[in-house]
Design brief:
single chain; alpha+beta; NADH Oxidase; four-stranded antiparallel beta sheet; two-stranded antiparallel ribbon; 6 strands; about 40% helix; globular
C-alpha cells in the first residue's frame, strides 16, 4: 500500500509561555493519585466514551491500535468480577507472592479484599489484541504490549483531566475476565481500571515520587 499524507499543523509555544505550560502540566499530573475508595455516583456513558477515545489516540506499532476497552457498569457483572478477582487475590496474598513482594506492598495497606470493583460506577477492562482477526485470518500486530501500555497511560491522563479518579488493578491471573466478558480468542486482559468520583474523606498513602535526578539523565 502506497503511503498517503495529509497536512498537519498545531500551535507552538516558545520561551516563557513554553516553560510555564510545561510546569503547569507537570504540577497537574503530579496531583494525580491512585485511589481505592470511590463514590457510587454514576458517570454518563458519554464521558467514558470520550475518555476511551482519548486513550485510543495513542501511538501504536504500524498503527494497528491493538486494544479493546470493555466498559462494565452493570452491578451484577461488577459483583461477578469482584468475586473472581478476590479469589485470585486471596491466593496471591496467601502463597503466590514471595515475601519481598508482600513487604514492598505493605506500606500501601492493600490486601485481597477489593470492594472498589463494586463501588466504582464504571470498570474499564483493557484487552490487548495479540494479533488481528480479519475474516477468520490472523494478521500480525506489532509491539502490542508497548502500544497498549501507551494507550493506558493516555487513559489515566484523560481520567485525571476530567476530575475523576482511577486505580490500575491487575489481579493475576486475569483469564477470568476473558470468560466473564466473552472476549475473542485473540484478546488478552491487560489492565482493570475502576473509574469514578472520589469518595468523601479519602486518605492515600504518604508516598514520594522520584525526583528528576533519579529518573532523568541529560547528555550534553
Amino acid at each position: 500500500m502506497q503511503a498517503q499524507f495529509i497536512p498537519y499543523s498545531r500551535t507552538s509555544l516558545y520561551n516563557d509561555a513554553l516553560l510555564q505550560e510545561s510546569k503547569r502540566h507537570y504540577e497537574f499530573m503530579n496531583s494525580r493519585r491512585t485511589v481505592r475508595e470511590f463514590s457510587t455516583e454514576p458517570i454518563a456513558i458519554e464521558v467514558i466514551e470520550n475518555i476511551i477515545m482519548s486513550a485510543s489516540t495513542a501511538p501504536s506499532g504500524a498503527n494497528k491500535q491493538p486494544w479493546t476497552f470493555c466498559v462494565v457498569t452493570n452491578a451484577t457483572m461488577k459483583s461477578q468480577i469482584r468475586i473472581e478477582a478476590e479469589k485470585e487475590e486471596y491466593e496471591s496474598y496467601n502463597g503466590r507472592m514471595p515475601q519481598e513482594w508482600l513487604d514492598d506492598l505493605s506500606y500501601l495497606g492493600t490486601d485481597w479484599h477489593k470492594p472498589f470493583l463494586e463501588e466504582a460506577p464504571a470498570l474499564i477492562i483493557v484487552f490487548k489484541q495479540s494479533y488481528e482477526l480479519k475474516e477468520g485470518q490472523k494478521k500480525t500486530n506489532y509491539y502490542v504490549s508497548e502500544s497498549v501500555g501507551l494507550a493506558c497511560g493516555y487513559l489515566l491522563q484523560a481520567i485525571h483531566q476530567c476530575g475523576l479518579v482511577a486505580l490500575t488493578h491487575t489481579p493475576s491471573p486475569m483469564n477470568f475476565l476473558s470468560k466473564l466478558l466473552n472476549r475473542f480468542i485473540n484478546e488478552k486482559p491487560f489492565l482493570l481500571i475502576p473509574v469514578g468520583y472520589l469518595a468523601e474523606n479519602v486518605r492515600v498513602p504518604d508516598i514520594k515520587r522520584k525526583g528528576k535526578e533519579e529518573v532523568m539523565v541529560h547528555y550534553r
